[in-house]
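== Sequence and structure of one protein ==
=== Format: two labelled lines per protein ===
==== Data for this protein ====
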Amino acid sequence: MSVFFTAFDAVLPLFLIILAGLLFSRTKMASQQWVEVLNRFALWIGFPALVITLLSRVDLSGGHYNRMILVNSVYFILCTLLAFPYSKLFRFSRLRRQTLFLILAYGNVTYLGIPVLQNVLGKEALPAGALLSAVYVFWLLTLGLLLVETGGKGAFQPRNLLLKLLTNPLFLSVIAGLFLSVTSLQLPQVLSRSFSMLSQSVTPVVLFSLGIFMGFQKIGHLREWGHIFLFSLVIMLILPGVFYLVTAKYGCLEGLNLQASILEAAMPVGLTPYALSQQYRLDTPFTARVVLLSTTLSFLLLPLWIVILGA
């Protein structure tokens, strides 16, 4: 039990910031507009600066991260495709099945995942965290949106999908960071320091924004939360559990790369899929409730995973 409390203590500061945001929204000290403004800062400035800073320092020449990238890509693809049998099993509508394409595999790997990795595994885990964020962002904005586009009522328009991909700041920052890493180019010192300052500011801003978002969500009827609770356990406990057993048994990953991969896989659903569900007019209320409940459950499930992984 003492090990669990030690793990709990490692993530507690992050959740206290979320709680502060929740209290601000509940006491009307913050409005819903705060969420949009803070998230725009994170999406367009903070996290691109963080991703570029971290990826530019990753040494990809030795192939140390190749297997981690491949294994996590396979995991993401399989989890995303799981939306087909899962929707059929529970007789979901086409709209909800489209929503599952965005939330079955994509957890809050950047906004919450990177801070958790830094607090639990230390700064040496940040390169792995940046690469895992890049993997998740890439597949969400390619495979995830492709399935959403082709599964809708309207005709599939590849040009629109490509345009959304090439104008997404997270995707562009991944490309820029990988380019700097592969070419070994160095940013000018003044620009590097500016990026470093911005990257250090983004974590508390986003966690506070997440708390404000949670505070404005309507509770609704309790009976509506049964399946959302089950779904949250599937994405945060069952799927990462299978992932862990397979990768550990067959030696696909080990050490820090294994710990980082499982922790990222166990993250709650974040605000990016919620924003995309709004943009594509999917089952937004369902997505919002999954974000709310999965984030709340992560308060207990993430320390549990930290204990299991021996992190």
About this structure: Residues 2-309 form a domain with the Na+/H+ antiporter like fold fold (CATH 1.20.1530.20). The chain has a mean pLDDT of 86. Residues 189-215 form the longest helix (27 residues). The chain has one domain: 2-309.
